[in-house]
Write a structure and sequence with these properties.
Blueprint (H helix, E strand, L loop, with lengths): L3 H18 L6 E6 L2 H6 L1 H13 L5 E6 L11 E5 L5 E3 L4 H13 L11
Parallel strand pairs: 1-2
Antiparallel strand pairs: 1-3, 3-4
Helix pairs in contact: 3-4
Length: 118
């Protein structure tokens, strides 16, 4: 019978494999706020923009959802985390802004200052 330490080690390894299979180790990560209030503000449509970009060939980007940001007045929110750079949180993200974030920040490497939550 496996020891508790061995069980935890096996479960951790399995979890890391699942994350790697989903692309979590990608150099760019995007987290879209999907709490109930963010969905009401339009984050579902924003998520669809990022998912379509992945289907359309956007590479080396992990896209997932996040919980409540606690700033309802700034929703929908999107976090962009690029390896070796400071994380950036965008607020009031629309479908058009999501497309711009993909082109300018994720692909182009330049954050869009006027949309950043400070």
């Amino acid at each position: 019978m496996a020891t508790p330490h061995e069980i935890v080690t096996q479960k951790r390894a399995a979890a890391l494999q699942r994350l790697a299979a989903r692309g979590y180790d990608a150099p760019s990560k995007v987290f879209i706020g999907m709490a109930t209030c963010e969905i009401a503000a339009g984050s579902k449509e924003v998520m669809e923009v990022f998912q379509e970009a992945l289907k359309g060939g956007l590479k080396n980007v992990y896209v997932s959802q996040k919980g409540c940001f606690g700033r309802c007045n700034l929703e929908p929110t999107v976090d962009v985390i690029k390896k070796g750079k400071k994380p950036v949180t965008y607020g009031k993200v629309t479908v058009d802004r999501a497309k711009e974030i993909i082109e300018k920040h994720i692909i182009g490497g330049k954050a869009i200052a006027e949309y950043i939550i400070k």
